[in-house]
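Field log, afternoon session.

UNIT: design team B
ACTIVITY: writing a sequence onto a fixed backbone
BACKBONE:
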């Protein structure tokens, strides 16, 4: 009887885990700005509608905020709204890189998350300690999707 009950509990736990929504990242523009006027964007790790962690980011300079976000090459605008496949953190010289592949039609390419500031066109994390924290969360929660909300 104990063995049957244990098997049933394991089965229920497995079914519950298989239906759980995975964590993903969301990028949102805030109303706050850095001292130079560049908008502060917020990267949020979201699981089942709950924000688990968040990090400040830069998604283009103030002067580039209203440019065509789907056009390339290199106008430096923020990433277009939509969903992206997020690659796992990998070394990129002395930096870390997380590849972003749009899951919609755009001519934008070579997109990612990395340590830079000022920076345009990618999601830039202004300091390495914050980038390391983000990379650790992406690994721990096996995050593979990013949504640019606004």
């Amino acid at each position: 009887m104990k063995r049957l009950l244990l098997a049933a509990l394991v089965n229920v736990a497995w079914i519950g885990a298989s239906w759980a929504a995975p964590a993903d990242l969301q990028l949102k523009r805030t109303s706050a700005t850095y001292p130079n006027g560049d908008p502060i964007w917020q990267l949020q790790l979201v699981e089942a509608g709950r924000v688990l962690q968040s990090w400040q980011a830069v998604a283009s300079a103030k002067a580039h905020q209203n440019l065509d976000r789907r056009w390339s090459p290199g106008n430096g605008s923020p990433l277009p709204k939509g969903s992206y496949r997020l690659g796992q953190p990998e070394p990129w010289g002395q930096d870390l890189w997380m590849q972003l592949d749009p899951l919609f039609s755009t001519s934008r390419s070579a997109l990612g998350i990395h340590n830079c500031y000022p920076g345009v066109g990618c999601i830039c994390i202004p300091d390495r300690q914050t980038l390391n924290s983000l990379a650790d969360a992406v690994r721990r929660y096996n995050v593979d999707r990013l949504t640019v909300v606004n």
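LOG NOTE: Residues 21-148 form a domain with the L,D-transpeptidase catalytic domain-like fold (CATH 2.40.440.10).
NEXT ACTIVITY: expression trials, pending approval
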